[in-house]
């Protein structure tokens, strides 16, 4: 898997210039240089003609027996090894670049692919123009021309709108007499819709407005640009229904293996960064605080006390934006459904890390319940070795809970989460070779509206219009070793600056250093707790170093608050001594993938987690750990592969979730695949697939602890 390829966030202009040949400046020279240049140009054109003659002899005119391959967002046409950027829109894969497959037919001018401006940047980069009589031979095998209706859908998509048409795309079209029309004014493309004898529908785009329109019937002797589409087998946008049946195909080998851990355990990771103002982020739904204004509270539903029963607090007059009437009314059901100790919504976690109630989205063997009292998390009496404030678990069953722990607390809150936010099965979509891409072709599905997930379909979607996408590798270094087993772990917490994969942070000082050089919105938030209301502890709020953050919070709110664009940067700049330390990029999601080879002698292989906000873990496409909607109180969880193996996880349809159909990878029964043993326990030495979905939706701190224990 390549991690530096260009994704859909790049513009068409930048895509078109990758590896391109600059336009020659030789035409500006004078004197004898003209003659020399003409000879050189003639030689180059002759060489190109010879190349394509040889190409025609090898592959023939028409559909080549050589096909194509797709690697993530890159399509390779195997006829000539030319690459194109692609994106999924609806149920189609779209080329984001003009077709550049060059062919001749007996070298007749009217039949060949044409480059209208050969003195400019080569058409191998910007695409050729093709006659309407030979369109059956333009697209790679399996691909086709889009219809007018499909062009219209594409023009309204984020994949189209996130690009700007490159100037060289506006070539107009060549008419029957080979004259170039609308050069520099419009881009013209063929559709697959016939429109009368010798005519076909075509579409055009203009650079001034980027507007899309039908260009009227174009004569088949004209030459226009071409984009091709491939049937993708279903929409990328989840309709909320389950897959319903086991999916067939095979699995690509992309991704890391937990078993290959000489340099640490690694996960391929896709991060999607969202701008401030997204309605699913920065809602502070876990907090209940008193306003002191009983009249206001009574008129907003409180029956007694100091607004204690309201999830929301007082006015939004502190300066923060986008906490308006819609936030109090339209989105209220989403806020109110977050796991919370005051309302007892959701479910609490026991001191052994297990929930207290059954989860309808988990298979029965993964739906363990606690026999202990509530787990609590808070601020520890003891400081860290560096003298910083620590947060950890107050009461726990030793040996069942890892991560930070307290020897006495100053305050603590019970650990709650919001179960059942996602469906139990992932959807896997085959690529062009019929294989499931474990990174690009995976969809997690929302089950219910809960805990500020109104726009959940955007969180991990390849086509999200707002998200900026980047790829990285999540590496867990070796932290302990023994004769029996090795442990690999990362521990990002309140005392060391937290987990911010898009930022560079000094773990000793917790100082923000810089944004990482990836596609992102930059440091949009501050790592302090700063709700947009009269928070009862605002005056005494302090960071891990013991510094009071009340004035920084006030500045942030006055600049627009957690949802205000540029508000965090402005507040930090106004008080750089403390503000610049706390700059962070909150508001992102990540999906991590690795595979794992199981053997029956590895009974202790397991993964443990502690995260705040949201976490869902799937093995072989079936949910095994649900810690969604945890908000600011981190929740633990773990999976043990031996237990999954005994249950035939992912191969057997479990009674708890049988209403969702068969497990999505149950048909993977080939040698070494996850269900080689059929409907029963896992076969020895079979491969299994781990997907981790995590969202960081609330500023303050980002906790992420992950421990992989592998038996030697």
Quickly describe the structure:
The chain contains 13 helices and 36 strands. It is an alpha+beta fold.
Describe the structure.
- This protein has 712 residues and is an alpha+beta fold.
- It folds into three domains: 12-20 and 63-231, no CATH class; 250-286 and 420-524 and 587-711, no CATH class; 296-337 and 527-584, no CATH class.
- 13% of the residues lie in helices and 26% in strands.
- Helix 10 (550-559) packs across helix 11 (567-574).
- The protein starts with 11 loop residues before the first helix and ends with a strand.
- Mean pLDDT is 78; it is low at 1-65, 233-253 and 288-317.
What characteristics describe this protein?
alpha+beta; 11-stranded mixed β-sheet; 5-stranded antiparallel β-sheet; 36 strands; 13% helix; globular; disordered N terminus
User: What would you call the shape?
Assistant: globular
Q: Approximately what portion of the residues adopt beta-strand conformation?
A: 25-35%
Major sheet details: 11 strands, mixed
Overall number of structural domains = 3
Number of helices: 13
Low-confidence stretches: 1-65, 233-253, 288-317
> What is the percent of helical residues?
10-25%
Span between termini: 27 Å
Mean pLDDT: 78
Gyration radius, in Å: 29 Å
Number of distinct beta strands: 36
Class derived from helix and strand content: alpha+beta
Q: How are the elements arranged and paired?
A:
Blueprint: H1 12-17, H2 33-59, E1 68-71, E2 74-77, E3 82-89, E4 92-95, H3 123-126, E5 130-131, H4 148-155, H5 158-161, E6 173-174, E7 180-181, E8 187-194, E9 199-205, E10 212-219, E11 223-224, E12 229-231, E13 250-251, E14 256-257, E15 265-273, H6 294-299, H7 325-328, H8 332-336, E16 347-348, E17 376-383, E18 389-393, E19 409-414, E20 416-417, E21 427-428, E22 435-436, E23 442-443, H9 456-459, E24 468-476, E25 478-481, E26 485-492, E27 503-505, E28 512-515, E29 525-526, H10 550-559, H11 567-574, H12 576-579, E30 583-584, E31 588-598, E32 606-619, E33 622-626, E34 631-640, H13 641-646, E35 686-696, E36 704-711
Parallel strand pairs: 13-22, 14-31
Antiparallel strand pairs: 1-2, 2-3, 3-4, 4-12, 5-11, 6-7, 8-9, 9-10, 15-24, 15-31, 16-20, 17-18, 17-19, 21-23, 25-26, 26-36, 27-28, 29-30, 31-35, 32-33, 32-34, 32-35, 32-36
